[in-house]
Amino acid sequence: MNLSSVICPICGAKISNSNNKYHFTCRFCSFKKNPALGTKQNIENYLEKSLKDIGQILALKDIPEIYVDGAREEDLRQIKNDHQVKLIPCAGHIQNADGIWAPMVLPFQDDLSGFFKEKFRQLKPGGMLYLSTPVTRIFQKNLPLPGQINFFKSKNVMFLLEQHGFKMAWRKNRFSRALKIIARRN
Length: 186
Fold this sequence. Notes:
Blueprint: E1 4-7, E2 14-18, E3 24-25, E4 32-33, H1 44-50, H2 54-60, E5 65-68, H3 73-77, E6 86-89, E7 97-103, H4 112-122, E8 123-134, E9 150-151, H5 154-163, E10 166-172, E11 178-185
Parallel strand pairs: 5-6, 5-7, 7-8
Antiparallel strand pairs: 1-2, 3-4, 4-9, 8-11, 10-11
């Protein structure tokens, strides 16, 4: 059996003796990547619940429109929006956006570095990025989401943000399975 090494996408550590680049655990930062267990859930399962936090991003910066990652126009039409902000599906061609809403997309990203580079490119300096993702804790084991391939600890997400030019502006995950973050692009 020919075992090769894999580079951890979070801390950059070389993980030797890995027989699969889609199935490993980093012994340094505890990031875990596993093959998907089923099909990916649709964003509408998370979107409406995540939009309860929209007041937090508006308190940090007055934003007239927010691009929603992974959402379709019909998904957004069904959502009740109490705030004076326009929700727009996020397409790859956008630039100079004030805000991007990306609920529960990190667990399904095959290329984490590419995802953060794309969001950095799409946001203007000072633009806000909302993320939510399930996180693992020492005494809490969560069931994986259908289709989930990335498993994070809170520090993994913080490191990824800093590594790609973002600073945390707001964070919420006390006693919760999910980490919710609003980060500002430098």
